[in-house]
């Protein structure tokens, strides 16, 4: 009976697909220190205001000078690499959940933004790209003049 409970708990924490995938990878991939390190894609939020497009990417443990940010043919690409530090003996790790390795994220930009004027800020592990909209794409408020009706104007005399 205990074996059945153990198996059930094991399958609850890891899906059957994850377990089969791990067994397959262990059986057919060469074993090396980096084979257990998975590739990753940093989380990104993109939002728009009346005057700009803002891209925020979570990039902890990456040096700003190691980021490659470029725009080509209206495609914004952010590249970099989070390296697995070998400061700690691998046998001392109890759990490794963070992903390491190279990443590349690309996003199509609308023709309404000015990709020549992108500003980048990197603070507390978050990269913030601010891409201003072109002047013609910014919302314009048009003031409407309302004339008083002729009857109301005559009654006011």
Terminal CA distance: 98 Å
What's the number of helices? 3
Return the string of H and E elements.
Answer: HHEEEEEEEH
What is the molecular shape? elongated
What's the architecture of the largest domain, going by CATH?
Sandwich
Query: What's the CATH topology name of the largest domain?
Result: Immunoglobulin-like
**Largest sheet geometry:** 4 strands, antiparallel
Q: What is the CATH level 1 assignment of the largest domain? A: Mainly Beta
Classification by helices and strands: alpha+beta
Number of domains: 2
Q: How many β-strands, per DSSP? A: 7
Residue windows where pLDDT falls under 50 for at least 5 positions = 1-13, 30-38
Order the strands across the largest sheet as they lie in space: 1-2-7-6
Helical content stands at: 10-25%
Estimate the strand proportion.
25-35%
Q: Work out the radius of gyration.
A: 27 Å
Output mean pLDDT. 78
Structure characterization notes:
- The protein is of the alpha+beta class.
- It has 2 domains: 1-30, no CATH class; 34-136, Immunoglobulin-like, CATH 2.60.40.790.
- It is built from 3 helices and 7 strands; from the N terminus they run H-H-E-E-E-E-E-E-E-H.
- A 4-stranded antiparallel β-sheet has the order 1-2-7-6, with no helix packed on it. It has a 3-stranded antiparallel β-sheet with strand order 3-4-5, with no helix packed on it.
- The longest helix has 13 residues, at 16-28.
- It starts with a helix and ends with a helix.
- The model is unreliable at 1-13 and 30-38 (pLDDT under 50).
Task: Provide a short characterization of the protein structure.
By secondary structure, the protein is an alpha+beta fold. It has helices spanning 2-13, 16-28, 150-155; strands spanning 44-48, 52-58, 68-72, 75-82, 101-108, 119-123, 126-132.
């Amino acid at each position: 009976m205990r074996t059945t409970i153990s198996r059930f708990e094991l399958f609850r924490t890891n899906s059957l697909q994850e377990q089969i995938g791990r067994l397959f990878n262990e059986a057919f991939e060469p074993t090396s220190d980096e084979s257990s390190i998975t590739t990753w894609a940093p989380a990104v939020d993109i939002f728009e205001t009346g005057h700009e497009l803002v891209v925020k990417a979570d990039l902890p443990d990456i040096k700003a000078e190691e980021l490659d940010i470029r725009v080509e043919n209206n495609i914004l690409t952010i590249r970099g690499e989070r390296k697995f530090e070998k400061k700690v003996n691998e046998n001392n790790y109890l759990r490794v959940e963070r992903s390491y390795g190279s990443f590349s994220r690309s996003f199509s930009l609308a023709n309404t933004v000015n990709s020549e004027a992108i500003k980048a800020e990197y603070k507390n592990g978050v990269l913030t790209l601010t891409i201003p909209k072109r002047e013609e794409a910014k919302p314009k408020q048009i003031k409407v003049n309302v004339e008083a009706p002729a009857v109301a104007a005559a009654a006011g005399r």
